[in-house]
Design a protein that fits this description.
about 15% strand, globular, about 300 residues, 8 helices, six-stranded mixed sheet
Length: about 300
């Protein structure tokens, strides 16, 4: 008998209907629970794909050192993938990342390098690029690697189409690296061009892990604006409040960007009718507990 290995468990995550948070006008809200992936986020999909495909091409070989900039979830997923396939992983991340994220990466054996809170992901990317230029490791470059959106085209998009029986009318996702929304959009639009793809970005001044508004010079090259039909700005309080609603009203413990996705889905529901709205719950909330965002209300 051929038994599965850990990488075989990536993907095929549940799609569940919200029961208590209503969408009105005969709309249906469906949450794609990516926290059920083995390392706890949607980033498990591109992490395994980027390493596996690079290894198939001969770009990397077990024992190599890999360097990647990350705000958190990709780093955890890459650390897991590196442990599975036998690579040394060096991750550069803003020092503002939650302690749970840092500890998870270290638990998988990754080496962590901090960028300043003020410099954020832009500084982290600059540090990683400088390290690679000095020959201190090989890049995967989630921001430019076509295997990132391709993993979502092959898996996430296909799963959503199958799980809804092709009934999905709207897809809502935060935009960070943008791999998820690019790959899912391509798949769904090929099946039904009328599916509306909605991307989320932070309002000015908001700092929401997993949702980015990139300066032009740092815009991921995998991003194609023509694949996004509408863009919504999400506020900090709005994302955090809806994150807590997911836990307290639906029993879904998730991160802040997932709260933003719910908020975006509810905005769509305000103008839609008879819609099947799928939104991404990109990770689990237990990696945010130290931030105090789930602290009991006074």
């Amino acid at each position: 008998m051929e038994y599965p290995t850990l990488e075989d468990t990536v993907g095929n995550t549940p799609l569940v209907r919200l029961k208590r948070i209503g969408a009105g006008r005969n709309n249906t809200l469906l949450a794609k629970l990516e926290g059920d992936n083995p390392a706890g986020s949607v980033k498990d999909r591109p992490a395994m794909a980027m390493l596996a495909e690079a290894q198939k091409r001969g770009d990397i070989a077990p024992g190599d050192t890999l360097v990647e900039a990350t705000s958190g979830n990709t780093g955890i997923a890459l650390a897991m993938a590196a442990a599975i396939l036998g690579y040394r992983m060096v991750l550069v991340m803003p020092e503002s990342a939650s302690e749970e994220r840092k500890h998870a990466m270290a638990a998988y054996g990754a080496t962590l390098i901090s960028a300043s809170k003020e410099g954020g992901m832009e500084e982290a990317r600059d540090i990683a690029e400088a390290m690679i230029a000095r020959g201190e490791g090989k890049p995967l470059d989630q921001f430019a690697n076509p295997d990132n959106p391709l993993s979502h085209y092959r898996t996430t998009g296909a799963e959503i189409w199958q799980q809804t029986g092709g009934a999905v009318t709207h897809f809502v996702s935060s935009m960070g690296t943008t791999g998820t929304i690019m790959g899912v959009s391509r798949y769904l639009k090929e099946r039904n061009p009328d599916v509306e793809i909605v991307g989320l970005q932070p309002e000015d001044g908001a700092s929401i892990a997993g949702i980015r508004r990139w300066p032009e010079a740092y815009l991921p090259s995998i991003f194609d604006a023509s694949r996004v039909d509408a863009t919504l700005d999400i506020g900090q309080f709005e994302a955090e409040e809806h994150m807590r609603r997911l836990a307290r009203e639906e029993g879904i413990l998730a991160g802040v960007s997932s709260g933003g996705s719910l908020a975006g889905a509810l905005r769509i529901a305000e103008r839609a009718e008879n819609a099947v709205i799928v939104f991404i719950v990109c990770d689990r909330g237990d990696r945010y507990l130290s931030t105090g965002l789930y602290a009991p209300e006074v």
